[in-house]
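Case study 2.
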Amino acid sequence: MKIKRFEDIIAWQKARELNINVFSIFAQHKNYGFRDQILRASLSIMNNIAEGFERQTNKEFIQFLYISKGSAAEVRSMLYLAKDFNYISENKFNELYDRVVEITKLISGFIKSL
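Prediction:
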């Protein structure tokens, strides 16, 4: 199946869902530096998928997918801090962490397919 729009990419869809969750938890957080960093990193996952797709060359798309994977790693790292600082529960950490790992695996598989 040929993907015609970035909105059809499962990794982008999952990253969008992740953003909804991350924003619902951290958008009103008082630690502004932490909040801004995790929100930007989370947004970067889906936005780099979209931007890379629109470049319409596999070479550039792959480059943006790697950036997206890096942003996913940043979100995972920030989630550890959120748990360490008791900003989120262990259960919420596990839920979000698992989502990010799933997105990372989808992106990796997508890179291999290109």
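Residues 73 and 100 are 8 Å apart (CA to CA).
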